[in-house]
Backbone:
């Protein structure tokens, strides 16, 4: 045996803290896993193991192994025999390897070759079947596509272990699942996966590791619909070890991937346990029955603040708790000298009556009264319940027109113009609308817009510092402000759990929040005295700012962990 290389197990065990703590927040948009995080360190570790494997750095070389050059001769003999027997077609010769294509320095007894020169392609035996045909041919045999089993069918095409490699689809680029995988048993393959045979199963397993270890971008054509055709696949460079070393590599990869699985599960369990702890402790705040109990529960949270709020998920949960405490009247103390909400609601009703008289709004049918069952919690002294529709001048849909960037007299704000709760008004396009029509839709500071469709459905935007004449598009609903109410308190409500739970309750099992004018008007709305509304908003601003600072520190820490992970990978491959 040659001199042993540094044990790859040590690479994992000596740096567990780095691999397991490099965690990134995942985008909330798009389909896929419901997890709100990505185990970046573990993902990099898995990739590193595969890269070390195909560079000859994962297991020691053995000078007694039959060299890969002999393996190439055996492959050539078997290929000729299979062609002679008519089992495979004679493939086009692959291009010779140029000097500038050389792989990294390979160990002795390894060979650099092209994929097509060492494999037996069985693509001609694939048969694609439409969904409709498969529906009528349901059975017990796996039906494979580009990324694995996609159906069951009543027959099979292959009955030996073969290597399947995705031929097309976004997964070729984003690699959300392995590109290469071994199919076993009896199964069917459609035309979205290449079917590859080889000299034996261990050889195919090694090729599977190799394909999953490398970038395939240079072998892919098309951007809208990525594809790796047979010719491109056959040109892939393969670092080929002796057959016996391939077996040792496969065994070591399997062993280390099991260790990765265990580490990953442990990390996820810790994250889930932490999230549950945060959820339980924060729930004690909103469930507190009086000020004394709230103070005790807050002291318990504050005692462990630095260890509780260490993930984006936990910081977001803290934000939501702050907002919910705000609308429950538990965030700031009540002042008995404040004018009660009952008087405020009378003023609101008077203001609406005046607007009706001035023909600025239309008189609407009274909204249904609020039953005791509809009240989600008990309000403090001086507060009152109302409907959101009663606390706004009007709640209505926007204007329907096509955006036109050449028009500037009247802008038309769309959902896409609102980014991170801000609007660049100069970039908002115009629309064709008469001054008379615009009068019903002109935005003013203090108006609140709510998205009624799309990825931001239910989210709200408070209009502030508007510098142009602008209407709003039909996919938005306006909650038109009244002078008697503090619009920023309404915005706090529209971000709270009380708001979102009512929207989902009205969703009737669709899984999407129900956002329409009528649903918004009938939202049960907790109304504090006006003076307390201002105190609440000031305290929310203060606490949300602390949350934002925590998130910035967390992101800086995450960036450091990612850099440490990348440095560790570079050092291992160097």
Residues:
């Amino acid at each position: 045996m040659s001199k042993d290389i540094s044990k790859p197990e040590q690479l994992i065990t000596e740096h567990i803290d780095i691999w397991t703590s490099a965690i990134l927040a995942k985008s909330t948009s798009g389909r896929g896993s419901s997890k709100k995080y990505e185990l970046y360190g573990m993902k990099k570790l898995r990739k590193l193991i595969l890269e070390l494997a195909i560079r000859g750095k994962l297991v020691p070389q053995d000078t007694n192994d039959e060299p890969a050059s002999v393996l190439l001769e055996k492959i050539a003999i078997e290929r000729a025999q299979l062609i002679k027997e008519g089992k495979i077609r004679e493939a086009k010769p692959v291009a010779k390897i140029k000097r500038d294509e050389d792989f990294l320095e390979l160990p002795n007894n390894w060979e650099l070759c092209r994929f097509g020169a060492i494999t037996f392609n069985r693509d001609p035996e694939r048969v694609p079947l439409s969904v409709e045909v498969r529906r009528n041919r349901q059975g017990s045999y796996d039906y494979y596509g580009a990324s694995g089993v996609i159906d069951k069918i009543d027959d099979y095409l292959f009955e030996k272990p073969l290597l399947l490699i995705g031929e097309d689809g976004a997964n070729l680029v984003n690699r959300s699942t392995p590109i290469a995988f071994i199919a076993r048993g009896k199964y069917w393959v459609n035309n979205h996966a290449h079917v590859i045979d080889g000299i034996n199963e261990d050889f195919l397993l090694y090729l599977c590791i190799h394909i999953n270890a490398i970038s395939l971008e240079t072998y892919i054509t098309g951007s809208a619909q990525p594809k790796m055709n047979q010719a491109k696949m056959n040109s892939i460079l393969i670092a080929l070890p002796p057959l016996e070393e391939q077996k040792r590599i496969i065994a070591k990869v399997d062993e280390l991937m099991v260790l990765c699985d265990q580490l990953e599960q442990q990390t996820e369990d810790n994250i889930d346990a932490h999230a549950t702890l945060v959820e339980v402790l924060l729930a004690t705040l909103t469930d507190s029955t009086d000020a004394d109990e709230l103070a005790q529960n807050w002291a318990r949270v504050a005692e462990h603040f630095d260890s509780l709020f260490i993930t984006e998920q936990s910081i977001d949960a803290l934000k939501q708790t702050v907002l919910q405490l705000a609308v429950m009247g538990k965030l700031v103390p009540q002042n008995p000298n404040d004018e009660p909400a009952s008087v405020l609601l009378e003023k609101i009703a008077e203001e609406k009556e005046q607007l009706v008289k001035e023909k600025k709004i239309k008189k609407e049918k009274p909204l249904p009264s609020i039953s005791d069952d509809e009240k989600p919690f008990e309000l403090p002294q001086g507060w009152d319940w109302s409907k959101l529709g009663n606390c706004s001048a009007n709640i209505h849909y926007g204007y329907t027109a096509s955006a036109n960037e050449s028009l500037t007299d009247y802008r038309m704000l769309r959902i896409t113009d609102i980014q991170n709760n801000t609007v660049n008004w100069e970039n908002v396009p115009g629309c064709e609308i008469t001054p008379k029509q615009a009068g019903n839709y002109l935005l003013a500071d203090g108006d609140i817009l709510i998205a009624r469709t799309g990825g931001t459905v239910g989210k709200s935007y408070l209009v502030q510092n508007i510098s142009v004449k602008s209407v709003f598009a039909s996919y938005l609903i306006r909650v038109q402000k009244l002078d008697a109410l503090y619009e920023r308190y309404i915005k706090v409500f529209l971000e709270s759990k009380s708001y979102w739970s009512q929207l989902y309750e009205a969703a009737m099992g669709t899984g999407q929040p129900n956002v329409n004018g009528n649903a918004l008007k009938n939202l049960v709305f907790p109304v504090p005295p006006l003076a307390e509304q201002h105190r609440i908003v000031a305290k929310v601003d203060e606490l949300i700012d602390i949350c934002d600072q925590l998130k910035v520190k967390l992101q800086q820490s995450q960036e450091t962990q990612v850099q440490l992970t990348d440095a560790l990978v570079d050092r291992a491959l160097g």
